[in-house]
Amino acid sequence: MKKLIYLIGIVFTFSACEDSFLDTAPDDALSPSTFWKSKQDLDLALTGIYNEFQSGSSIMYRDAGSDNAYNNFPWEGWNKIGNGKNSPADPGASYYNFTTINRCNEFLANADNATEVSEEVRDIYKAQARFIRAYKYYVLTTNYGDVPLITQNFASPEEAKVPRNPQADIREFIEDELNSVIDVLPESYSEAEFGKATKGAAQALLMRYYLYFKDYEKALATANSIGGYSLHPSFTGLFDPSNEKNNEVILSVQHTPNTYSINFTPFLPNGIGGWSSVVPTQSLVDAFEMADGKTIEEAQSAGEYDPTNPYKNRDPRLRASIVYPGQVFAGKVYRSIEENDADYYNTADNASKTGYNFKKYTSFMDSDPGSPYWNMGNDIYIFRYAEVLLTIAEAKVELGQIDNELYEALDAVRLRAGMPAVDRDKYADQESLRKLVRNERRVEFAMEGLRRDDIIRWNIASDVLNGELKGVERGEVLETTLPNGDYNVSLSLPENLIESRQFEAPKNNLLPIPQNAIDKNPNLTPNNPGY
User: Fold this and answer.
1) What are the start-end ranges of the H helices in 450-494?
2) pLDDT tens digits for 383-392?
3) What is the pLDDT of residues 162-221, one digit of tens each?
4) Which of 502, 470, 443, 465 is nearest to 356 (CA)?
5) What is the CA radius of gyration of the chain?
6) What are the start-end ranges of the H helices in 293-421?
7) CA distance 226 to 149
8) How many other CB atoms are there within 10 angstroms of residue 138's CB atom?
9) pLDDT in tens, 92-115
10) Which end of the chain is more exposed for a tag (fewer CB within 10 A), N or C?
11) At what angle do helices 39-53 and 99-110 cross, to 10 degrees?
12) Which residues contact 462 (CB under 8 A, 6 or more apart)?
């Protein structure tokens, strides 16, 4: 797949005008008379589809639209979504984009012209395009509700001025498409084609779809149908670029240095040259349990948690996911709580305003602080097997099926992380298990783009996205160290106020259709309620 990404950059490009993503009419169609003949033509066209269908950095930015993260720079698009101040004229980050759908439609309309390629191979190619188109429609409808359902490209921009289809139509389309391609897509490809959509990827998207729309019976059945994957032995090692093809990965965004690289500058601390564009919240940090499975509140009641030195004896996923004060990261002690340090919140525009930075995917900086973090080849996960297990657990909780399968799914994820198995006496009823499963999803998938959808589908976004967003309490890094080599801290000074957030349900459950899209196609009105 990475070879194909290279080819697409060198040999073939789709020339689209700067604002074409707002249109539903393509302007990058390929001539059937000169293209669509050989396997190479299909490879290049399909790679053009993969090249646009999902951005790795976009996945990581999405947490800034939830209580997991804060986006420091308004022009990057997630600040106003996080604080609820987006509007049609200023929508922030936008998913209202039909470029990839247009490419899929063109591919599906022309692939069978490549008669040099066997029908069986063409069917697999078309199934990949259908999967990606269904994926894009899933993103569109979960973010915008009603959207135009376009399965054939239009001949002109005028013809493309179509109204929005009801979400029910979009949902039926997604479900039908995925069910149709699951048995066509192969279970795996050669190593050279790693990253293409498989049967497991289609099953995982269908599973996520059912969970989002609260069809728990089908979510459970689909999750249980996914086979051939297993948890990687180490949570920390899972995000090491040397392990990016491990058996937990169901589908990932492919990157390779120089040709299709990912730039980690937005996620790294100011003190090592990063921008701190997307940074963890204190709320996320507090969601990680103590190492023995107690919540912070429970440990504090038992006298086992020191709020002035809060990073001691915590869930190992905290250190693997977040750079916190006193941690040794990239060969330096992170001192964001100390005034005048390069990472202190008001020292520089690029200093984290919360006093934390994300670490997931950037642990390579620990082994090689000189890594070219602006030009990396790390793959970013879209679906991984831990999501299958936690879907099984959540679906069974919501169905009231409190049994061994539920506990074993949770235990597998927790034990892999170095956490104790679930206390079955403590978590024995639906309400306590619901709270546990939701928190497991939060800490397991931090910075993986799932949290915003979770808090919206659980109807808790108004509870967790309203009020003052504050950073870490300030203080000093002490000279004494913890067993893991990090330094103790003393948090004794007030935290800084970052912003006031608001989430108005049901308005903010959906994003607004951008005004410039409506200007081009007035039939998109009315906008979503409240905008």
Assistant:
1) 451-457, 461-464
2) 999 999 999 9
3) 999 999 999 999 999 999 999 999 999 999 899 999 999 999 999 999 999 999 999 999
4) 470
5) 23
6) 296-301, 316-321, 364-367, 385-398, 404-417
7) 28
8) 22
9) 999 999 999 999 999 999 999 999
10) C
11) 160
12) 503, 504, 505
Asked if residue 147 has pLDDT above 50, the reply is yes
As given in the structure block, the two tokens for residue 60 are 């990581």
Contact 179, 203 (CB under 8 A): no
Q: Which tens digit of pLDDT belongs to each residue from 255-289?
A: 999 999 999 999 999 999 999 999 999 999 999 99
Residues 6+ apart with CB under 8 A from 194: 1, 245, 254
In this structure, what token pair is assigned to residue 250? Answer: 């169901």
Q: Which candidate, 496, 479, 500, places its Cα nearest to that of 488?
A: 479
Query: Which residue has 């870490």 as its token pair?
Result: 472
Residues 511/95, Cβ–Cβ less than 8 Å? yes
Q: CB within 8 A of 401, min separation 6: which ones?
A: none
Q: Using alpha carbons only, what angle is made at residue 73 by residues 515 and 448, rounded to the nearest 5 degrees?
A: 90
Token representation of residue 17: 């005008």
Phi, then psi, of 270 in degrees rounded to 5: -55, -35
The encoded tokens of residue 297 equal 């509140």
In angstroms, how far apart are the furthest CA atoms of the chain? 76
d(CA 359, CA 370): 16
**CB of 381 closer than 8 Å to CB of 232:** no
